[in-house]
Amino acid sequence: MNRLYFLSAVVFFLFIAGEAGAQFVGPGVQINANSVKAILQNPVDDTPVTLRGRITKRLSHEKYMFNDGTGEIRVDIDADHFMPGMVFTPETLVEIFGEVDKDPLWPAEIDVKMIQIVAETARTPVAVTVQGTTVKSILDHPVDDAMVNLSGNIVKHIGKDKYLFDDGTAQIRVEIDDKYFPAGVVIKPQTVVNISGKLDRDFHRLPEIDVKSVVKVVTEKPLPKRGFSEN
What we know:
CATH 2.40.50.200, 2 domains, 5-stranded mixed beta barrel, 3 helices
């Protein structure tokens, strides 16, 4: 009986720890992370951030220093997050998208999911198109490697890291690695999520989205009539 009680206590503790690790980001939650200074003053692990500034130094493999004019912070950028052919210097203005990585033993840093060069005169992205705000507009005019931000439902798992996403205007296949799902958060077909990523257009198959960020939205909406209907 004591052994059974002990095992039950362990399972309960692990469940609570997993729930505590989940963090909601969306309407109703104030996120003050629009500058390096704000992030360093109050770093919150896994907070989504978008920053504009310059990569001033390479520290080591995939580690760089980033400065936005308010302060400096270390950033982690995987090689596959750089756009093909991207070349930049410490003077190049860039925009980074990612999450705060806070470790009790180390200063906060940014885990970068996407980076783009910005034209300083027009303050608009260079060589990277920000795609339309609906699946239909993306499918009508697909641009390879274009950045996309969409709100809708992940209605079906179709194999390994492949899912079907529906925003009410159309459906598109998305590829989402497990690490990009919010920790400890259950995503159901009726759960509204915001996804960000790059469009992957191959002339031998339909366009799909390589997703780098999934954020659960607080409200849930009914699935589109053509959508996945399982609970």
